[in-house]
Automatic annotation (TrEMBL):
Keyword S-adenosyl-L-methionine attributed: no
Record keywords: NADP, Oxidoreductase
MF terms (GO), sorted A to Z: NADPH binding; oxidoreductase activity, acting on NAD(P)H
Organism, as annotated: Cyanidium caldarium
Name under which the protein is recorded: Enoyl reductase (ER) domain-containing protein
One Pfam entry name: ADH_zinc_N
Source species, domain of life: Eukaryota
SMART domains: PKS_ER
Domain Enoyl reductase (ER): 22-338
Length: 342
């Protein structure tokens, strides 16, 4: 390990709270760990800045043990990709292999991570680094939710799905993936700035909240009076409430985010008259019941451009404040990435 430095940069969550008000700390003197038995050292290239990462910094995301235990002082970042640069005893992954490390406790916002070799997903040659860095959170959420929709609703009779936050990276990927399955999407966005982009991407219909006062009425008009067979919501509050009311009889609502911070309200009559189903979707729980081949399925879709993540802009770890400001920018057109080894 003579060519590997002893110190590295790591973006740490020093305290929980507003990420733009001093909760983050760039440690330029963090130790580079050494791999133990069956482990590898990965030099990170790109790491994501996801909404769940923002909630982690705020101290409200339940998927990170340190948040649940109220113990700040750890390196943030849930996903990214890099290259194996050293092996521990018994590790079979070769040095030079591009991988996505599946990190159980965050830690992607640093230049080097140690991870069990068994928890590394090799990246195919046909997938670029920036796309591979986004393997887990968004693509698997898209696949998981669409699987649930196809399993629990009558999509053959009514192929219409309504989704909120459609301009997000996940929303754009869902448009592509749904189209590949023969499903039709109604995409709810805040402003008209990205309407044409989403249509070019494959969106069947786009509802602009700034222009449309009655979302359920518009959805029923688009679907010929049926309503949407499924609603996929990342917002909650008034927007989530509107898409619940847009559901067809026996429709399915999946809540997977809470961008508004407000609860979705459901009319009791929709439960016992329309017999809709309302529940949540969390990829961390869904993935625990999937085969390892699901990762290769995503990579294949990326290679074929059937579901390809877009990037808004990349930043170095030193530019973390700029990165978070960009994350909060409205009408963002892709993922914010940290170029960790820049």
């Amino acid at each position: 390990m003579s060519s590997i430095p002893s110190k590295q940069k790591a973006l740490e969550i020093a305290s929980f709270g507003d990420p733009l008000k001093g909760c983050l700390r760039l440690n330029t003197d963090a130790p580079v760990p050494q791999p133990g038995k069956d482990q590898v050292l990965v030099k990170m290239r790109y790491s994501c800045l996801n909404p769940a990462d923002v909630f982690t910094v705020m101290g409200v995301y339940p998927g990170v043990p340190a948040v649940v235990e109220n113990k700040p002082g750890f390196v943030g970042g849930m996903e990214g990709m890099g290259v194996v640069v050293a092996q521990g005893e018994g590790a079979s992954l070769k040095v030079g292999t591009r991988v996505v490390p599946l990190l159980p406790n965050a830690g992607a916002w640093q230049q080097y991570v140690v991870v069990d070799a068994a928890r590394c997903v090799p990246v195919p040659d046909g997938v670029e680094d920036k796309a591979a860095a986004q393997l887990v959170v968004n693509p698997l959420t898209v696949i998981g939710m669409l699987d649930e929709v196809e399993r629990h609703t009558a999509v053959k009779d009514n192929p219409w799905i309504v989704q909120t936050a459609a301009n997000s990276t996940l929303g754009r990927m869902l448009i592509q993936a749904a189209k590949g399955r023969g499903l039709r999407t109604i995409n709810v966005v805040r402003s008209a700035a990205t309407r044409d982009e989403l249509k070019k991407l494959g969106a069947d219909e786009v509802i602009v909240l700034a222009e449309e006062k009655d979302v359920p009425k518009r959805v029923h008009h688009i679907t010929g009076g049926k309503g949407a067979i499924a609603a996929l919501d990342a917002v909650g509050g008034e927007v989530g409430t509107a898409v619940v009311a847009s559901l067809a009889p026996k429709g399915l609502f999946l809540g997977y985010g809470l961008q508004s911070g407000q609860p979705t309200q459901v009319n009791n009559s929709d439960l016992f008259v329309k017999e809709i189903t309302v529940r949540g979707f969390w990829v961390a729980k869904w993935i625990a019941h999937q085969q390892a081949s699901v990762f290769q399925d995503v990579f294949k879709m990326m290679e074929q451009k059937h579901m390809y993540p877009q990037v808004e802009k990349e930043y170095t770890l030193d530019q973390y404040q700029e990165a978070f400001r960009a994350q909060f920018k409205p009408d963002r057109r892709g993922k914010i990435l940290f170029h960790v080894d820049a």
